[in-house]
Amino acid sequence: MWQAGADCKAGVELALEIINGKYEMGFPFAREEGLPGLGGAKLECVFGDSRGDPTQGASEAERLIRQDEVVALVGGYQSTVVKAASATTEFHRIPYVLSDAASLTAVGLQYVFRVSPDEGIQARDALNCVRDVAANEKVELKTVALLWENTEGHSSMAGQVRKIAKDYGLEIVADVSYASQAADLTA
Question: What pTM was computed for the model?
Fold first, then answer.
């Protein structure tokens, strides 16, 4: 499993432990066991692995829905995989909760939901962060460079960064995309 996938899986497992257990912490659902609105029902998570391949992602979504009878899908990292899997969830009318993929939520799919800001908000916040660091270091920020993965989602993000950088009067001195499976970005 790819490291980002392993990290996401560990995060989900921790969240399940907190929700299904009982802990004195300030997290939602931590102080009582299970889901309070469902009589303390415990959540169970079944994992799939797309291996970064859109066809495999759609197959895993199909398997999770038909074989494991899941009631919702959560996650997905690469936009091409999410796009393929969302067609499956939409067909089966199974909710699919994403952390990204604004382009998918913008096309009006009924069963796809995003829990993070869209690329425009993320790009603005990232550039504001860079501007804040420059101001704190008393450095005049005039230029920025973009290095981005050449997938649909990251391409969209790069486009938003270009737009906002122009609005901020910043010159883009490099705009470099790289293959999503690149092993070395030294060049």
Answer: 0.71
